[in-house]
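Batch manifest, entry 17 of 40.
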Amino acid sequence: MNLANTLDLPESRVEEYHDELRTSRWLTDMANSHDERNGIDRTQAEEAVRTLLRWAGDDPKREGLLDTPKRVVDAYGDWFSGYEDDPREYLERTFEEVAGYDEMIVLRDISFESHCEHHMAPIIGRAHVGYLPDGKVVGISKLARVVETYARRFQVQEKMTAQIAQSIQDVLHPLGVGVVVEATHECMTTRGIHKRGVSMVTSKMLGTFREDARTRSEFLRFLRGGQEG
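Output type: structure tokens
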């Protein structure tokens, strides 16, 4: 392939283009190598991946694995971005002009991907969040962001469920909060006991959701699609 024709460059510019490209890649690599998080720079993180590849029995220098450490570190930056966010900040953006609305608010089927803190294996599921407002409400996207922020950390499902509920209670001060989380755990389906088709359900009820059986029943009825059980 003729690079000059492909890029519509004069021959005299091709070598200059190569130099610019190499410089750009070098600058990108340098910036990435100094991407430090929590006292660990990117070079150290990538070397840790190479160590695991060698431990698993493969050669991190072979062609198919050359870029794997970079990709894994990039993926970790995405998967665990929740450590960089404070979920309570999302809930502080409230509004009170709701024409006197004081009934239950429920957001169902919030999908999430998390990772088990015991085996670093994926947890895939959905969360259902409800609360009974006491004068102020929050945009529904903010509820989804709270779920997302806690999910993008190492988790156990029970803790994550409680964290979501408690953060809503602490910031919005509603009359009550209910959170139900359903998820499958790859640490159980791809290792150990190898049981597929198994899901785990956890719930956390606070305030009137815990104290009043009718409120709790209404919330759970919403989760069934509004159908009487």
